[in-house]
Amino acid sequence: MGGGINMKRRVLLLLKRSMLDGYVSRERMQMCEPPFASLMVSHPKAVGNLSDRHRVHQHTVEVCKDVLKRKSNVVWDSLMRDELRGCPIRDVDLVVTIGGDGTLLQASHCLDSSIPVVGVNSDPTRASEVEENLEEFDATRSTGYLCAANADNFEQVLDEILDGSRKPLVLNRILTRIDGMNFTYPSLNDVLLSHPNPAAVSRCSFSIRKAGNDEPTTSVVHSRSSGLRICSAAGSTAAMASAGGEIMDFMSPDLQYMIREPIRPHPLFRDHLRGWIRPDEVLNVQWGCRQGVLHFDGSHVFQQVKFGSVIEFSSNAPPLKIFTNFSKNVQM
């Protein structure tokens, strides 16, 4: 990180609430008692797992805070991720997210290309625990694919960032334009365009165009399906991979698109239901349903569209600086 030798680095600690906190808060808002008493009888191991996940997450938060308190060259503040409210993050030198990939993705929406981010996986999945409980419940915790640290190595990772020996990667993100207007947040992983009802048919027509040129360079494809997904290189290991897409080199400047579950496509269109958006290209989509919704990097950020809306996808968004372990995690 830049700055003079004696300059204090400004760090924002962005925290998620544990799943247990989320359940309890939701029950309180609905003015009813949490159902844990009955669940302790019917599913004691699952509830115990939930409580342990809360404990592990809180332990990681305290470890990270203690590390920051010991750093004389750091001034820091903390914020719950639901307190961001989509506001831009400014006036800091580094954002540290504590949670999982979802927390880092939420932070990324509020960051331009000037402030780097590093993720701390607060509750890593334990393979032995998953196997042990396979017949009773899903004991998967946090994948933390985008995260560079955990409670055990956070101080080492932070020191490497502060002394400049660990460099951030600069990752491409997805720019979405809706009827000629840039959407507020760039997407680090992916964007899903679909009907708001998952059982309904999604209709759209799309083509590839050169940036700044209204003439398509490919045939216009008419599609009926369960939606259209666009991903960046970083997001190619997520939902796109699960749907059979290609895992990309994480430094690739390209985007990948795929029609989900196409319904009897015309023979002329079958070879164009998935493909690539190069850095000088735009995927131009005209929506063909009365209702539609765009989801950005998961379910929390979304935007409604209507019949006739024109949505454009490109890699022309501000990139993200991120400290990560992709070189250790990615299997090509």
Question: Mind explaining what this structure looks like?
Answer:
The chain has 332 residues and is of the alpha+beta class. The chain folds into 2 domains: 9-166, Rossmann fold (3-Layer(aba) Sandwich); 173-317, Sandwich (Tumour Suppressor Smad4), CATH 2.60.200. The protein has 8 helices and 18 strands. The chain has helices at residues 19-29, 36-42, 44-70, 101-109, 127-132, 154-162, 239-242, 326-329, and strands at 9-15, 74-80, 94-99, 117-121, 169-171, 175-178, 181-182, 190-194, 202-210, 221-225, 227-231, 255-260, 274-277, 281-287, 291-296, 301-306, 310-314, 320-323. The strands form 3 sheets. A 6-stranded mixed β-sheet has the order 2-1-3-4-18-5, with helices on both faces. It has a 6-stranded antiparallel β-sheet with strand order 7-6-17-14-9-10, with no helix packed on it. Strand 6 and strand 7 form a beta hairpin. Helix 2 crosses helix 3. The chain is globular, with a radius of gyration of 22 Å. Mean pLDDT is 91; it is low at 328-332.
